[in-house]
Design a protein that fits this description.
This protein is an alpha+beta fold and about 475 residues long. The protein contains 12 helices and 13 strands. β1 (about 90-95) and β2 form a beta hairpin. α2 (about 15-70) runs antiparallel to α4, α7 (about 330-345) runs parallel beside α8 (about 365-380) and α8 runs antiparallel to α11.
């Protein structure tokens, strides 16, 4: 039964507004009930005890007058004086006298001795009663002096303080009802101001969870916390949108990449398979068998280069520690590139030029060597005649390195995509030369790992220029590091 009541008053799931109203009503209700109980029981009891003690003091004072004053006339005058100024009725009873004085006037009421407060037992010394006299509530205190048998009774009408407490109780009851009603109304208003922004944020968050990321959260509230929350959620939504767009682009690139890889791998595999089938024929002469074997080896080499380049890109993307900068002399590196690429250039009748002054740079020498070989090899592959020049010059605290050719040039619509994986300006020429379509992409990855970019400009029929920059190091720094 109790558990059901608690469940109804405090359900396991309810709106924030309900919880706020219930909490405030509970707190205010407990406070109001505590004050009411204190006024009703504690304060009233304390006032009554204090009143009893006051009447007892008056009775004891009269008893002391009676015991000290043996002259009847003077005793009577003293008691009259006390009743006249204290709004009291004093009754004194001894063996030879009954004196009953009410506000200075002597009364003759033989029934006094029969009243309840005058009835003492063997060991009683004090009686306190309340009864109605002539439609008025009167409190009586009677004290008996056991050795002498004298009884002193003091009577006093109901004090105004008791009426004040009664009115205070009534006022408190009304105030408690008003406080509860005001608490309910105030908590409802406060809950509305709190829950309305929360409902707006909840609905917006639900829309965002359903994929409606363009919806902006707006709360009509002056509370700084709600404004900050809405701002944070909007920023989070924008971030999610950017991440989702980025993931969608990456997914598209991944699909394109997988398609390109499968295409690039499938062609040499099919070619190798065809050549192996041809080699299995018994009717082939020695010349044909040699031709097919060479073609098969060429395609295997192309396939090996493709996987090597893919592994290289993956390592550069996920392994920052592969770049190990050091200071080295750039012209020596270009001489090595010249020795490697000279034969290819001579075969096509292209003049390869790498004459440059001595300059020190800071970078990963092996990786920059790979960059220069790829750029030079690419320039030779797409040039049928003319010159391929590797040059550099000092530019502030950098050294700008350029690879320039006088080849066919690159169409403008290809310039933005030439660093993408498997993108080829001339697919037929690239495949005939054994290229994988990943050389420029590797170049971009290596320079990005150095914190640098690769740039290109080209004019159809006049040639192409690639350039990038590396950090310059003076001779003294190079010697100190060496």
């Amino acid at each position: 039964m109790f558990e059901r009541l608690v469940e109804r008053l405090f359900p396991s799931r309810a709106s924030t507004q309900t919880w706020m109203i219930l909490t405030l009503l509970l707190v205010v209700g407990i406070a109001v009930a505590a004050v009411g109980l204190y006024i009703t029981f504690v304060l009233r009891s304390e006032v009554q005890i204090a009143f009893q003690q006051t009447m007892l003091q008056e009775a004891n004072r009269v008893m002391s007058i009676v015991e000290d004053e043996h002259d009847h006339a003077r005793r009577q005058d003293a008691i009259r004086t006390m009743t006249r100024f204290g709004d009291l009725r004093i009754t004194v009873v001894d063996d030879s006298l009954l004196m009953d004085v009410d506000r200075g006037t002597m009364r003759d009421d033989p029934a006094v001795l029969t009243q309840p407060e005058m009835q003492f037992g063997a060991g009683d010394e004090l009686n306190f009663v309340r009864r109605d006299v002539n439609g008025q509530t009167v409190y009586f205190t009677a004290v008996k002096h056991m050795p002498s048998g004298i009884i002193v009774r003091v009577a006093q009408p109901r004090p105004m303080l008791f009426g004040l407490i009664g009115r205070l109780q009534f006022t408190l009851v009304v105030a408690m009802i008003m406080a509860l009603l005001l608490a309910m109304f105030g908590s409802w208003i406060a809950a509305q101001r709190v829950t309305q922004p929360l409902v707006t944020i909840r609905n917006s968050a639900k829309s965002i969870s359903e994929g409606k990321l363009d919806e902006e959260i707006f709360v009509d509230s002056r509370a700084a916390e709600f404004q900050d929350l809405a701002k944070s959620l909007n920023l989070m939504s924008d971030t999610f949108k950017e991440k989702i767009d980025e993931l969608q682009k990456m997914a598209a690139l991944q699909n394109e990449f997988i398609g390109n890889v499968s295409h690039e791998v499938r062609n040499p595999i099919f070619a190798v398979g065809g050549y192996l089938e041809a080699l299995a024929s018994d009717s082939l002469d020695g010349e044909k068998r040699k031709f097919y074997a060479e073609k098969g080896l060429t395609n295997l080499e192309r396939l090996n280069n493709l996987f090597s380049d893919l592994i290289e890109i993956a390592r550069l993307e996920y392994r920052e520690d592969l770049i190990k900068p050091s200071v080295f002399e750039l012209s020596e590196l270009l001489d090595e590139v010249y020795d490697i690429e000279k034969a290819k250039a001579d075969e096509k009748g292209i003049d390869l030029v790498v004459e440059n002054p001595i300059v020190n740079v800071r970078a990963d020498r092996a990786r920059i060597r790979q960059v220069l070989i790829n750029l030079t090899d690419n320039a030779i592959a797409y040039s049928d005649e003319g010159t391929v020049r590797c040059r550099y010059r000092r530019h502030l605290d950098k050294v700008r390195i350029e690879v320039v050719d006088t080849g066919k040039g690159i169409p403008e619509h290809h310039l933005e995509r030439i660093f993408e994986r498997f993108h080829r300006v001339d697919p037929d020429r690239s495949r005939k030369s054994g290229g994988t379509g990943l050389g420029l992409s590797i170049v971009k990855q290596i320079l990005a790992a150095h914190g640098e970019n690769i740039y290109v400009e080209s004019t159809l029929g006049r040639g192409t220029r690639f350039w990038f920059e590396l950090g310059f190091e003076d001779t003294e720094s190079a010697r100190a590091e060496a």
